[in-house]
Amino acid sequence: MNHAVPVSGAWRPTDPVGHRQFLSLDRKLALDSGQVLDGVVVAYETWGTLNADASNAVLMCHAWTGDSHVAGPADLGHPTPGWWESAVGPGLAIDTNEWFVVCTNVLGGCQGTTGPASLHPDDGKPYGSRFPVITIRDMVRAQVRLADHLGIGRWHSIIGGSMGGMQVLEWATTYPDRVSSIAPIATCAQASAQQIAWGSIGRRAIMTDPKWRGGDYYDAAPGDGPHEGLSTARMVAQVTFRSDNVFTERFGRQIVGSDNALKSIDQKFEVERYLEYHGDKLVRRFDANSYLVIGKAMDLHDIGRGRGGLEAAMARINVPTLTLGIHSDMLYPAYQQIQIRDLLVSRGVPAEYIEIDSPHGHDSFLIDLDQVGPPLRHFLANV
Amino acid sequence: MNHAVPVSGAWRPTDPVGHRQFLSLDRKLALDSGQVLDGVVVAYETWGTLNADASNAVLMCHAWTGDSHVAGPADLGHPTPGWWESAVGPGLAIDTNEWFVVCTNVLGGCQGTTGPASLHPDDGKPYGSRFPVITIRDMVRAQVRLADHLGIGRWHSIIGGSMGGMQVLEWATTYPDRVSSIAPIATCAQASAQQIAWGSIGRRAIMTDPKWRGGDYYDAAPGDGPHEGLSTARMVAQVTFRSDNVFTERFGRQIVGSDNALKSIDQKFEVERYLEYHGDKLVRRFDANSYLVIGKAMDLHDIGRGRGGLEAAMARINVPTLTLGIHSDMLYPAYQQIQIRDLLVSRGVPAEYIEIDSPHGHDSFLIDLDQVGPPLRHFLANV
Questions:
Q1: Which pLDDT tens digit goes with each residue over A78-114?
Q2: Which domains does chain A have, with CATH numbers?
Q3: Active site residue: B329, B360, B363, B364, which one?
Q4: How many CB atoms lie within 10 A of CB B222?
């Protein structure tokens, strides 16, 4: 069964909801930009049961093109299987017999939470180019509303990798009284120039696609959106998500098919086919404007913004912290997670850094769950 | 004075020649693909004087978007200053009082040698999409014709970085009797899957630009070629040419101008402006089809092709070899140059590896000439 979102310029997240739930915010959401969003909807999923004193709640935060679907099969409303399928569930590392696990789709996304493809409450037409710049902090503000709604005053822990880790750090610095522990994984306290460079090239690939049409492409015929640009953007990202060594092992210099490699400039290497597969796959499930808006939020990520800089912001964090890094990660190099640990330890905050020994690069936090799960299980149990 | 090639879809290398010379090949050039090119012209420059027994000739090989202009100011016919300006000249590391230095523009290029923008001899119209797939070996075959023309039976040394290093290795394996020593720098014996991945994304950016028009865009109005795609391709490459650390030091998270960074998704970071500058700069001086054809040649680079593999090919090299690597090079990691040294040393060939200690990444071989020049001077003197 293929529950992929149909490829369409007019794609909107109106498919049936599956396991997802929705919270319609009862008040406007004020953004870092100074703009205000009205009628915001937050899509989320939960696993396990909240206990009587609401002390067993764990928030999981997803990465760039992720969604609220931490665990479970692909289903209506979430086109891919759970992104931590083998780590979150009854008896698993993050044991849903013990913990009440919550995950939202982020603000700006396209899997149920308000984003550029959502309908503007003023005119019932998609936001498109009208969607404001958002920040990781804004994503967290939307999650705070959900926590209030669910009666969760303080999370036992907040966990996330990559952009998920950015949300973790923003929670701990913006709402230090609502967090008992954090686990930021393969992430950073502020986006580096190289990370911004990769992000901006992806945005450029989308925005120079004539079918992007300034962001207002939702009236396009099915299949006629800015898919070439989104696919190229994803291909750039996909290389940075993985590693030189694994590409060499997996693809080497293999040519697609048995034809003469010198026949035509269109003759592809296997690694090219792999990248195109990932580009096409994303196009089928993700909205180009969401990719832009969320990517920009990642580039704008800086927990020190408006707080007197990085160290002043980090000084707001006083809870036990476990940060995981990956030695083969070229996109969020391990030094960025070590920096988080060091800034906390220098102030006496209990913080530990564990390095995942995997060749798979940045995506190791989604691949090598046998190395991610056990330290998290131990951390949750001992906070 | 700005001698940049005008931005134009109809750009052709018909501008005055400056210091360049041209050799029109008197016979057809048979290519690895099985195709044949007729009427090939090779643009080249020389410095110094060939001695009586033609024993002081040094061939320099340029990188992807380079040209024959190793030394000298920007001038008509070569829109950028010499790429090793401070290392090649009278009294410099590669002393043109002693050595007769030669550099060609590569086959497929757009700075005088026959490439996709050249006129097809059959109909006098640009090759465009009709230009064949070429290889590094084909580039070397064109250089062999020039060596014959100049009366150089055997080069004292052949030197080049990046794609230039690929030519160096192809010379030594294809024409072992015509080379007395080689210096391949920041290069590889065969392109890796990750290198192919980066290359293929750049090609995709160009080929999905509607103004590329299948490669036949030379009748476009000035400024109306596939410049968006070429610029995006260059931006991807530019990140891989440099390094995380230097981007952080140079650009950090600086925003262009003093505006609110959250105002608009179009608000740029300084690192974005830098990348766009490099994209725009390349568009003004380089033809998109040449970028494609030469990039494909780099991805096809494998000195083992048709020779029973890498080790069998390397076994053809029996001359003193100096290979330079760069510890911060993410595109051609140092292990690739160490591999070249190791394969030679294992067979008793005198080969040395020297690592350039620079933070500038792959481009260090064009930037830190104070570390490149002295070992080359010593190597040339002691072969």
A1: 778 899 999 999 999 999 999 999 999 999 999 999 9
A2: 21-192+301-382 (3.40.50.1820), 196-295 (1.10.1740.110)
A3: B329
A4: 11
